[in-house]
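TICKET: design request
STATUS: open
ATTACHED STRUCTURE:
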């Protein structure tokens, strides 16, 4: 089902999608890297929304990446969100091991949020391309800055991301009616971005709205 807020586990959704059928995928894994390893001790206040989400193990994240890699078209893109901790640790490279995926760029998102003193106000979007690597033939907007400033007003989800950046990226690497995948859709802003840009969205979340009768479904996407 296209352009719907599907209520489904992302791993199960990926199993329904054909090989080499998706032009662009967004993936924002729910992990506890900073909360567990840096031990800030502030889960009860600033981090409560993120901490209460079901957290993914390393094995689960790898399974997601593997499924996304299979569904991407050759030279398709994966936009992978990480925080500074995972960027510096380089753990995301383990997630991509043995997959035909290569890091080709990085965008830092400045959230424009201030704290009482200094604070971590950036997240990072690792731009990954499925082989074979192609630049000019797959990316038409060369004006996207590598530091993107966008403030989110009222948050509807702890992992909410900047919709204007997502729309710009969708327009940069897809054409009309291309399929854009978000297997962990959260606030479903990628769906909104697809509707505004004329692309076809497929994605879901455990907090989605439309139930799927899995035994009755064989595939979500057609290859072309």
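STATUS: resolved
RESOLUTION: sequence designed for all positions
ATTACHED SEQUENCE:
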């Amino acid at each position: 089902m296209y352009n719907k807020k599907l209520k489904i586990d992302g791993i199960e959704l990926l199993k329904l999608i054909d090989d080499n059928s998706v032009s662009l995928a967004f993936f924002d894994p729910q992990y506890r890297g900073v909360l567990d390893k840096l031990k800030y001790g502030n889960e009860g206040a600033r981090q409560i929304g993120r901490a209460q989400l079901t957290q993914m193990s390393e094995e689960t994240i790898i399974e997601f990446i593997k499924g996304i890699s299979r569904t991407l078209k050759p030279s398709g893109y994966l936009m992978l969100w990480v925080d500074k901790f995972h960027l510096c640790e380089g753990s995301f490279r383990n997630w991509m091991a043995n997959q035909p995926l290569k890091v080709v760029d990085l965008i830092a998102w400045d959230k424009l949020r201030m704290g009482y003193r200094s604070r971590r106000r950036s997240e990072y979007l690792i731009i990954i391309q499925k082989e074979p690597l192609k630049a000019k033939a797959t990316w038409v907007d060369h004006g996207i800055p590598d530091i993107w400033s966008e403030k989110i007003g009222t948050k509807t989800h702890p992992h909410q991301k900047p919709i204007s950046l997502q729309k710009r990226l969708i327009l940069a690497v897809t054409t009309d009616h291309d399929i854009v995948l978000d297997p962990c859709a959260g606030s479903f802003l990628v769906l909104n971005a697809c509707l505004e840009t004329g692309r076809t969205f497929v994605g879901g979340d455990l907090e989605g709205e439309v139930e799927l009768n899995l035994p009755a479904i064989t595939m979500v996407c057609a290859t072309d």
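CLOSING REMARK: The chain has a mean pLDDT of 85. Strands lie at 6-7, 22-27, 72-82, 101-110, 122-130, 147-149, 179-182, 200-205, 210-211.
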